[in-house]
Amino acid sequence: MLQYENCSQIGVKMENEKKLYHTAGRTALLSYLKERASEAPETADEIYRGLVAAGTAPGRSSVYRMLSELAESGRVRKSRASGAGYTYQLVSESYDCHGHLHLQCLSCGKVSHLKCDCSTEIVSHLLKTHGFLVDRGRSVLLGTCAACGEGKV
Asked: Who contacts 127 (Cβ-Cβ below 8 Å, separation ≥6)?
């Protein structure tokens, strides 16, 4: 097992980096999450089943542990699912996930990036008026997307 000083050595940047082992399972999980970064977030079981289907699955408990570590570091967004449990999605550098808020549909689970000035205005208002500093990279507004809400508004 190879040990790396940080995940950037395997193509992944993390906040609060700690030494991580470069294993086949971790590589498979990160590759899977990168491929699905623009898709709706998935539960740990869905991610595990996807890895099994690809023939690259580490053990189920390893997937849960690695997702937990990645979420704790801020590299993966962990969101409460519409039922019980959580969903996970890679925080993508290409979308600058730390620079804006996110919208998650409670019907289909899709996460959209709120890339307009109102994101900055909301964050600024909360800080100035309420003394509350928002973590943009992990902040998710829940609601219904246009496709799922068609005809309901």
From this structure: 133, 134
Residue listed under structure tokens 């409460």: 80
Per DSSP, 82 falls in state S
Is the pLDDT confidence value at 48 over 60?
yes
Answer whether 0.70 is exceeded by the pTM: no
The string of pLDDT tens digits covering residues 6-35 is 344 334 444 445 566 678 888 899 999 988
Q: What is the DSSP letter of 151?
A: T
Q: At 112, which CATH number?
A: 3.30.1490.190
For residues 48 and 118, state if they share a domain.
Answer: no
127 is in which domain, residue-wise?
Answer: 96-149
Q: Where are the alpha helices (DSSP H) in 16-143?
A: 24-35, 44-54, 60-73, 117-130
The number of distinct structural domains making up the chain is: 2
